[in-house]
Design the sequence.
């Protein structure tokens, strides 16, 4: 295993820890490693030794091999060609990832209200749209961006033919909420 491979296990460690509902402090207590070191591993700023990775894996009720496999499966490079889909709605990111991205083309107006668990960004690539969020109306034009934090009720509609809107959001299955206290 080269240095790059060792570094990339951090994201798998973080996902596993979060899936178990553990804090860094809890994993530190279980593994005997420090919170700062575990944080550096998760943020891929430190490379764990074989022994340290064994201790982390044991604390996370898994094996180093499973952490490496999860790290390998997390690395994805995927090109979605514009020609693969027609007008309407197309996925810009395929599969189950931490980001969900869709492009809406044409006169979209479902009249439906949305409220997502996590944050999202709406970018107007072409045309214009009207967005109603938390009782306020926003007119967006080409190049404008609207940020919505998780839990904000909103609805939108394209207001010009040929409008293209890119919506990028943290996937619903990801718990990206945190206590700001």
Sequence:
């Amino acid at each position: 295993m080269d240095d790059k491979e060792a570094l990339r296990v951090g994201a798998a460690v973080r996902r596993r820890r979060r899936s178990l509902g553990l804090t860094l402090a809890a994993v530190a207590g279980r593994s005997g490693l420090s919170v700062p070191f575990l944080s550096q591993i998760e943020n891929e700023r430190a490379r764990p030794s074989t022994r340290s990775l064994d201790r982390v894996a044991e604390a996370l009720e898994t094996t180093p091999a499973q952490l490496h496999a999860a790290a390998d499966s997390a690395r994805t490079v995927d090109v979605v060609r514009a020609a693969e889909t027609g007008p309407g709605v197309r996925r810009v990111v395929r599969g189950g990832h931490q980001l969900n991205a869709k492009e809406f083309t044409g006169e979209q107006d479902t009249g439906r209200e949305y409220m997502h668990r996590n944050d999202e960004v709406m970018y107007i690539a072409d045309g214009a749209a009207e967005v109603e969020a938390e009782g306020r109306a926003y007119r967006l034009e080409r190049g404008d961006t609207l940020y919505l934090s998780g839990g904000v009720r909103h609805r939108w509609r394209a207001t010009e033919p040929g409008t293209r809107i890119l919506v990028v959001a943290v996937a619903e299955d990801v718990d990206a909420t945190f206590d700001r206290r």
In short: The radius of gyration is 21 Å. The beta strands are 89-91, 99-105, 120-126, 128-133, 136-141, 145-148, 154-158, 164-170.
